[in-house]
Amino acid sequence: MSSTEDSTGVEQTSPGAGRRPSLGSLEALSLGRYAGVIVALIVVAAVLTITQSTFLTWDNMKNIIAANSVILILGLGATFVVITAGIDLSTASLMTACSMMLAIAFKSGWALVPAVVLALAFGAAAGWGNGFLIAKGRISFLAVTLGALSIWQSFSLVVQEGQTVSVFSASAFKPIHELVTNDIGPIPLLLIFDVALLLIFGGVLRYTTFGRSLFAIGSNEEAARLSGINVSRVLILVYTIAGLAAGLACLVSVGRLTAGSPTPDPNLLLTVLAAVLIGGTSFTGGIGGVAGTAIGVVFLGVIQNGLTLSNVSSFWQGIVSGSILIIAVGLGVLREKGWSIRRARGANAAVTEGPVR
Q: Residue 157 in contact with residue 262, Cβ under 8 Å?
Protein backbone atom coordinates (compact mmCIF):
# COMPACT_ATOMS: atom_id res chain seq x y z
CA MET A 1 0.00 0.00 0.00
CA SER A 2 1.26 3.49 -0.75
CA SER A 3 0.42 6.95 0.56
CA THR A 4 -1.11 9.57 -1.68
CA GLU A 5 -2.40 13.03 -0.93
CA ASP A 6 -5.88 14.40 -1.41
CA SER A 7 -6.87 17.90 -2.41
CA THR A 8 -6.29 19.27 1.09
CA GLY A 9 -2.71 18.05 1.25
CA VAL A 10 -3.52 15.28 3.77
CA GLU A 11 -2.20 11.95 2.64
CA GLN A 12 -4.49 9.03 1.90
CA THR A 13 -3.70 5.35 1.59
CA SER A 14 -4.26 3.86 -1.81
CA PRO A 15 -3.30 0.66 -3.58
CA GLY A 16 -0.07 0.90 -5.46
CA ALA A 17 3.62 0.37 -5.38
CA GLY A 18 5.64 1.16 -2.29
CA ARG A 19 7.49 4.05 -3.79
CA ARG A 20 5.64 6.54 -1.57
CA PRO A 21 7.17 6.47 1.89
CA SER A 22 5.20 5.90 5.07
CA LEU A 23 6.29 8.68 7.40
CA GLY A 24 5.35 9.35 10.96
CA SER A 25 4.34 12.98 10.54
CA LEU A 26 2.26 13.06 7.37
CA GLU A 27 0.62 16.40 8.06
CA ALA A 28 3.98 18.08 8.68
CA LEU A 29 5.27 16.65 5.42
CA SER A 30 2.27 17.83 3.40
CA LEU A 31 2.48 21.29 4.95
CA GLY A 32 6.12 21.30 3.92
CA ARG A 33 5.00 21.00 0.30
CA TYR A 34 3.33 24.40 0.58
CA ALA A 35 5.66 26.06 3.09
CA GLY A 36 8.29 27.13 0.55
CA VAL A 37 5.91 28.77 -1.91
CA ILE A 38 3.89 30.40 0.89
CA VAL A 39 7.02 31.90 2.44
CA ALA A 40 8.16 33.09 -0.99
CA LEU A 41 4.72 34.58 -1.63
CA ILE A 42 4.83 36.47 1.68
CA VAL A 43 8.32 37.81 0.93
CA VAL A 44 7.39 38.95 -2.59
CA ALA A 45 4.18 40.55 -1.34
CA ALA A 46 6.07 42.36 1.43
CA VAL A 47 8.62 43.74 -1.04
CA LEU A 48 5.89 44.90 -3.42
CA THR A 49 3.94 46.48 -0.56
CA ILE A 50 6.99 48.54 0.34
CA THR A 51 8.04 49.45 -3.19
CA GLN A 52 4.66 49.79 -4.94
CA SER A 53 2.02 51.91 -3.22
CA THR A 54 -0.80 50.50 -5.35
CA PHE A 55 -0.05 46.82 -4.75
CA LEU A 56 -2.32 46.29 -1.74
CA THR A 57 -5.23 48.28 -3.10
CA TRP A 58 -8.42 46.31 -3.68
CA ASP A 59 -8.54 47.40 -7.31
CA ASN A 60 -5.12 45.82 -7.86
CA MET A 61 -6.22 42.64 -6.09
CA LYS A 62 -9.17 42.45 -8.48
CA ASN A 63 -6.78 42.88 -11.39
CA ILE A 64 -4.76 39.90 -10.16
CA ILE A 65 -7.94 37.81 -9.87
CA ALA A 66 -9.11 38.74 -13.37
CA ALA A 67 -5.69 38.20 -14.95
CA ASN A 68 -5.23 34.74 -13.43
CA SER A 69 -8.71 33.23 -13.53
CA VAL A 70 -8.06 31.45 -16.84
CA ILE A 71 -4.79 30.03 -15.44
CA LEU A 72 -6.58 28.74 -12.35
CA ILE A 73 -9.36 27.02 -14.30
CA LEU A 74 -6.94 25.37 -16.71
CA GLY A 75 -4.75 24.48 -13.73
CA LEU A 76 -7.61 22.61 -12.04
CA GLY A 77 -7.97 20.33 -15.05
CA ALA A 78 -4.20 20.01 -15.42
CA THR A 79 -3.88 18.96 -11.77
CA PHE A 80 -6.12 15.96 -12.38
CA VAL A 81 -3.97 14.94 -15.36
CA VAL A 82 -0.63 15.39 -13.59
CA ILE A 83 -1.80 13.39 -10.57
CA THR A 84 -2.21 10.42 -12.94
CA ALA A 85 1.42 10.94 -14.08
CA GLY A 86 0.39 12.55 -17.37
CA ILE A 87 0.59 16.01 -18.93
CA ASP A 88 -1.88 17.68 -21.27
CA LEU A 89 0.05 19.99 -23.59
CA SER A 90 -3.04 20.88 -25.62
CA THR A 91 -5.06 22.64 -22.94
CA ALA A 92 -4.15 26.25 -23.89
CA SER A 93 -4.66 25.78 -27.63
CA LEU A 94 -7.91 23.89 -26.97
CA MET A 95 -9.17 26.81 -24.89
CA THR A 96 -8.44 29.08 -27.86
CA ALA A 97 -10.41 26.80 -30.16
CA CYS A 98 -13.32 26.75 -27.67
CA SER A 99 -13.17 30.55 -27.52
CA MET A 100 -13.50 30.76 -31.29
CA MET A 101 -16.47 28.38 -31.28
CA LEU A 102 -18.17 30.41 -28.54
CA ALA A 103 -17.54 33.71 -30.32
CA ILE A 104 -18.76 32.37 -33.67
CA ALA A 105 -21.93 31.08 -32.00
CA PHE A 106 -22.66 34.47 -30.42
CA LYS A 107 -21.92 36.31 -33.65
CA SER A 108 -24.28 33.94 -35.49
CA GLY A 109 -27.13 34.90 -33.14
CA TRP A 110 -27.14 31.89 -30.81
CA ALA A 111 -28.70 32.29 -27.38
CA LEU A 112 -26.56 32.15 -24.23
CA VAL A 113 -27.22 28.56 -23.14
CA PRO A 114 -26.73 26.84 -26.53
CA ALA A 115 -23.53 28.84 -27.17
CA VAL A 116 -22.08 27.95 -23.75
CA VAL A 117 -23.07 24.30 -24.11
CA LEU A 118 -21.37 24.24 -27.52
CA ALA A 119 -18.10 25.56 -26.08
CA LEU A 120 -18.16 23.18 -23.12
CA ALA A 121 -19.11 20.19 -25.26
CA PHE A 122 -16.41 21.04 -27.78
CA GLY A 123 -13.75 21.11 -25.07
CA ALA A 124 -15.00 17.94 -23.38
CA ALA A 125 -15.18 16.05 -26.70
CA ALA A 126 -11.63 17.08 -27.61
CA GLY A 127 -10.44 15.98 -24.16
CA TRP A 128 -12.30 12.68 -24.53
CA GLY A 129 -10.47 12.13 -27.82
CA ASN A 130 -7.13 12.66 -26.10
CA GLY A 131 -8.06 10.27 -23.31
CA PHE A 132 -9.33 7.60 -25.71
CA LEU A 133 -6.11 7.62 -27.76
CA ILE A 134 -4.00 7.50 -24.61
CA ALA A 135 -5.99 4.88 -22.70
CA LYS A 136 -7.30 2.66 -25.51
CA GLY A 137 -4.80 3.36 -28.26
CA ARG A 138 -1.88 3.13 -25.83
CA ILE A 139 -0.24 6.15 -27.46
CA SER A 140 2.06 8.29 -25.31
CA PHE A 141 0.27 11.22 -23.69
CA LEU A 142 3.11 13.45 -24.92
CA ALA A 143 2.54 12.43 -28.55
CA VAL A 144 -1.25 12.73 -28.33
CA THR A 145 -1.43 16.07 -26.54
CA LEU A 146 1.42 17.60 -28.54
CA GLY A 147 -0.38 16.61 -31.73
CA ALA A 148 -3.63 18.00 -30.34
CA LEU A 149 -1.85 21.25 -29.48
CA SER A 150 -0.89 21.67 -33.14
CA ILE A 151 -4.35 20.65 -34.37
CA TRP A 152 -6.25 23.15 -32.22
CA GLN A 153 -3.79 25.96 -32.93
CA SER A 154 -4.35 25.50 -36.66
CA PHE A 155 -8.10 25.01 -36.22
CA SER A 156 -8.37 28.33 -34.38
CA LEU A 157 -6.67 30.08 -37.30
CA VAL A 158 -8.48 28.25 -40.09
CA VAL A 159 -12.02 28.54 -38.76
CA GLN A 160 -12.15 32.31 -39.33
CA GLU A 161 -9.06 32.68 -41.53
CA GLY A 162 -7.04 34.10 -38.65
CA GLN A 163 -9.54 36.86 -37.87
CA THR A 164 -10.58 37.87 -34.36
CA VAL A 165 -14.33 37.44 -33.80
CA SER A 166 -15.84 40.33 -31.82
CA VAL A 167 -18.89 39.58 -29.66
CA PHE A 168 -19.21 42.96 -27.96
CA SER A 169 -22.49 43.79 -29.69
CA ALA A 170 -24.07 40.33 -29.20
CA SER A 171 -26.90 40.58 -26.68
CA ALA A 172 -26.52 36.94 -25.55
CA PHE A 173 -22.91 37.66 -24.59
CA LYS A 174 -23.86 40.20 -21.91
CA PRO A 175 -24.25 37.72 -18.97
CA ILE A 176 -20.73 36.35 -19.56
CA HIS A 177 -19.29 39.85 -19.70
CA GLU A 178 -21.08 40.68 -16.45
CA LEU A 179 -19.70 37.52 -14.81
CA VAL A 180 -16.17 38.67 -15.58
CA THR A 181 -16.56 42.39 -14.81
CA ASN A 182 -19.32 42.81 -12.19
CA ASP A 183 -19.15 42.62 -8.40
CA ILE A 184 -21.45 41.66 -5.55
CA GLY A 185 -20.60 44.42 -3.10
CA PRO A 186 -16.80 44.45 -3.00
CA ILE A 187 -16.51 40.80 -4.13
CA PRO A 188 -15.97 40.13 -7.86
CA LEU A 189 -18.38 37.61 -9.36
CA LEU A 190 -15.37 36.05 -11.04
CA LEU A 191 -13.80 35.30 -7.65
CA ILE A 192 -17.00 33.53 -6.55
CA PHE A 193 -16.99 31.54 -9.79
CA ASP A 194 -13.34 30.53 -9.30
CA VAL A 195 -13.85 29.51 -5.67
CA ALA A 196 -16.90 27.43 -6.60
CA LEU A 197 -14.90 25.55 -9.24
CA LEU A 198 -12.03 25.08 -6.77
CA LEU A 199 -14.39 23.55 -4.22
CA ILE A 200 -16.00 21.28 -6.81
CA PHE A 201 -12.68 19.97 -8.15
CA GLY A 202 -11.30 19.61 -4.62
CA GLY A 203 -14.42 17.76 -3.49
CA VAL A 204 -14.13 15.31 -6.39
CA LEU A 205 -10.51 14.56 -5.46
CA ARG A 206 -11.20 14.13 -1.77
CA TYR A 207 -14.62 12.56 -1.48
CA THR A 208 -15.13 10.38 -4.54
CA THR A 209 -13.89 6.97 -5.59
CA PHE A 210 -12.89 8.52 -8.90
CA GLY A 211 -10.65 11.02 -7.10
CA ARG A 212 -8.94 8.29 -5.09
CA SER A 213 -8.44 6.32 -8.28
CA LEU A 214 -6.38 9.16 -9.74
CA PHE A 215 -3.85 8.91 -6.94
CA ALA A 216 -3.72 5.14 -7.22
CA ILE A 217 -3.07 5.28 -10.97
CA GLY A 218 -0.43 7.96 -10.54
CA SER A 219 1.34 5.94 -7.86
CA ASN A 220 1.37 2.68 -9.84
CA GLU A 221 -0.88 2.12 -12.82
CA GLU A 222 -0.45 -1.64 -12.92
CA ALA A 223 -1.15 -2.04 -9.21
CA ALA A 224 -4.25 0.12 -9.60
CA ARG A 225 -5.44 -2.12 -12.44
CA LEU A 226 -4.86 -5.26 -10.36
CA SER A 227 -6.82 -3.73 -7.48
CA GLY A 228 -9.90 -3.49 -9.70
CA ILE A 229 -9.70 0.08 -10.99
CA ASN A 230 -10.79 0.52 -14.59
CA VAL A 231 -7.70 2.50 -15.56
CA SER A 232 -8.76 3.17 -19.15
CA ARG A 233 -12.13 4.59 -18.12
CA VAL A 234 -10.56 6.80 -15.43
CA LEU A 235 -7.92 8.17 -17.81
CA ILE A 236 -10.50 8.94 -20.48
CA LEU A 237 -12.58 10.81 -17.90
CA VAL A 238 -9.53 12.68 -16.60
CA TYR A 239 -8.66 14.07 -20.03
CA THR A 240 -12.34 14.81 -20.67
CA ILE A 241 -12.39 16.90 -17.49
CA ALA A 242 -9.24 18.71 -18.65
CA GLY A 243 -11.02 19.49 -21.92
CA LEU A 244 -14.09 20.66 -20.02
CA ALA A 245 -11.85 22.96 -17.99
CA ALA A 246 -10.61 24.45 -21.27
CA GLY A 247 -14.24 25.12 -22.20
CA LEU A 248 -14.90 26.79 -18.85
CA ALA A 249 -11.74 28.89 -19.18
CA CYS A 250 -12.83 30.11 -22.60
CA LEU A 251 -15.90 31.73 -21.01
CA VAL A 252 -13.62 33.92 -18.90
CA SER A 253 -11.25 34.58 -21.79
CA VAL A 254 -14.01 35.70 -24.17
CA GLY A 255 -15.68 37.64 -21.37
CA ARG A 256 -12.50 39.64 -20.72
CA LEU A 257 -11.53 40.21 -24.36
CA THR A 258 -15.14 40.61 -25.62
CA ALA A 259 -13.90 38.58 -28.57
CA GLY A 260 -12.59 35.21 -29.64
CA SER A 261 -8.90 35.48 -30.48
CA PRO A 262 -7.39 32.83 -32.79
CA THR A 263 -3.92 33.23 -31.26
CA PRO A 264 -3.24 31.71 -27.83
CA ASP A 265 -1.02 33.37 -25.25
CA PRO A 266 2.40 31.76 -25.85
CA ASN A 267 3.14 31.73 -22.11
CA LEU A 268 -0.23 30.35 -20.99
CA LEU A 269 0.58 26.63 -21.08
CA LEU A 270 3.92 27.20 -19.38
CA THR A 271 2.29 29.27 -16.64
CA VAL A 272 -0.43 26.66 -16.03
CA LEU A 273 2.07 23.82 -15.67
CA ALA A 274 4.31 25.97 -13.49
CA ALA A 275 1.39 26.74 -11.15
CA VAL A 276 0.50 23.05 -10.84
CA LEU A 277 4.07 21.96 -10.09
CA ILE A 278 4.81 24.90 -7.78
CA GLY A 279 1.69 23.90 -5.84
CA GLY A 280 3.28 20.56 -4.96
CA THR A 281 1.65 18.21 -7.46
CA SER A 282 4.35 15.71 -8.38
CA PHE A 283 5.20 15.44 -12.07
CA THR A 284 5.76 11.70 -11.47
CA GLY A 285 2.13 11.30 -10.34
CA GLY A 286 0.35 10.10 -7.23
CA ILE A 287 0.70 13.28 -5.16
CA GLY A 288 -1.00 16.64 -5.39
CA GLY A 289 -4.17 18.65 -4.98
CA VAL A 290 -6.03 21.68 -6.24
CA ALA A 291 -5.34 23.71 -3.09
CA GLY A 292 -1.66 23.69 -3.97
CA THR A 293 -2.46 24.64 -7.55
CA ALA A 294 -4.44 27.65 -6.32
CA ILE A 295 -1.45 28.72 -4.20
CA GLY A 296 0.81 28.33 -7.23
CA VAL A 297 -1.53 30.47 -9.35
CA VAL A 298 -1.60 33.21 -6.71
CA PHE A 299 2.20 33.13 -6.42
CA LEU A 300 2.75 33.47 -10.16
CA GLY A 301 0.00 36.08 -10.40
CA VAL A 302 1.60 38.24 -7.72
CA ILE A 303 5.00 37.99 -9.43
CA GLN A 304 3.54 38.95 -12.81
CA ASN A 305 1.61 41.81 -11.23
CA GLY A 306 4.76 42.98 -9.49
CA LEU A 307 6.68 42.98 -12.76
CA THR A 308 3.93 45.04 -14.36
CA LEU A 309 3.79 47.54 -11.50
CA SER A 310 7.58 47.82 -11.61
CA ASN A 311 7.44 48.60 -15.33
CA VAL A 312 9.46 45.53 -16.23
CA SER A 313 9.14 44.63 -19.91
CA SER A 314 6.63 41.90 -20.70
CA PHE A 315 9.40 40.22 -22.67
CA TRP A 316 10.91 39.15 -19.34
CA GLN A 317 7.77 37.43 -18.08
CA GLY A 318 8.42 34.27 -20.10
CA ILE A 319 11.92 34.08 -18.68
CA VAL A 320 10.56 34.38 -15.16
CA SER A 321 7.83 31.75 -15.71
CA GLY A 322 10.27 29.34 -17.36
CA SER A 323 12.82 29.74 -14.58
CA ILE A 324 10.18 29.19 -11.92
CA LEU A 325 8.96 26.05 -13.72
CA ILE A 326 12.48 24.59 -13.78
CA ILE A 327 12.93 25.41 -10.09
CA ALA A 328 9.56 23.82 -9.25
CA VAL A 329 10.43 20.60 -11.06
CA GLY A 330 13.88 20.60 -9.45
CA LEU A 331 12.37 20.97 -6.00
CA GLY A 332 10.00 18.12 -6.81
CA VAL A 333 12.95 15.89 -7.69
CA LEU A 334 14.71 16.83 -4.45
CA ARG A 335 11.54 16.12 -2.52
CA GLU A 336 11.26 12.67 -4.10
CA LYS A 337 14.92 11.95 -3.23
CA GLY A 338 14.31 13.12 0.32
CA TRP A 339 11.39 10.74 0.68
CA SER A 340 13.47 7.88 -0.71
CA ILE A 341 16.28 8.60 1.74
CA ARG A 342 13.88 8.75 4.70
CA ARG A 343 12.22 5.53 3.61
CA ALA A 344 15.56 3.76 3.25
CA ARG A 345 16.67 4.96 6.69
CA GLY A 346 13.41 3.80 8.20
CA ALA A 347 13.78 0.38 6.63
CA ASN A 348 17.38 0.08 7.83
CA ALA A 349 16.40 1.12 11.32
CA ALA A 350 13.65 -1.51 11.39
CA VAL A 351 16.08 -4.22 10.28
CA THR A 352 18.68 -3.13 12.82
CA GLU A 353 16.29 -3.01 15.75
CA GLY A 354 14.55 -6.26 14.85
CA PRO A 355 11.09 -7.29 16.05
CA VAL A 356 9.82 -6.04 19.38
CA ARG A 357 9.69 -8.87 21.91
A: yes
Please check the confidence at residue 77 and state whether its pLDDT lies above 90. Answer: yes
In the chain the domains, ranked by start, together with CATH numbers, are: 65-308 (1.10.3470)
The residues near 256 (Cβ < 8 Å, ≥ 6 apart) are 66, 180
E strands of 6-112, at which residues?
A: 11-14
Cα torsion through 207, 209, 214, 216, rounded to 10: 110
Distance in Å from the first CA to the final CA of the chain: 26
At 323, which amino acid appears? S
Strand (E) or helix (H) holding 3: strand 2-5
Among the listed residues 30, 33, 32, 25, the one whose alpha carbon sits nearest the alpha carbon of residue 10: 30
Q: What is the pLDDT of residue 35?
A: 75
8 A C-beta contact, residue 80 and residue 214: yes
Neighbours of 223 (CB within 10 A): 18
Read off the pLDDT of residues 134-165 as tens digits, 9 standing for 90 and up. Answer: 999 999 999 999 999 999 999 999 999 889 99
Give the rounded distance of the alpha carbon of 350 from its chain centre: 39
Q: How many CA atoms lie within 13 A of 211 on its CB side?
A: 21
320: confidence class by pLDDT, cuts 50, 70, 90? confident
Residues 81 and 86: their CA atoms lie apart, in Å, by: 5
Q: With contact defined as beta carbons under 8 Å apart, do 128 and 243 qualify? A: yes
Buried/exposed code over 151-171 (b: 16+ C-beta within 10 A; e: otherwise):
bbbebbbebeeeeebebeebe
Angle between helix 290-309 and helix 189-207 axes, rounded to 10 deg:
150
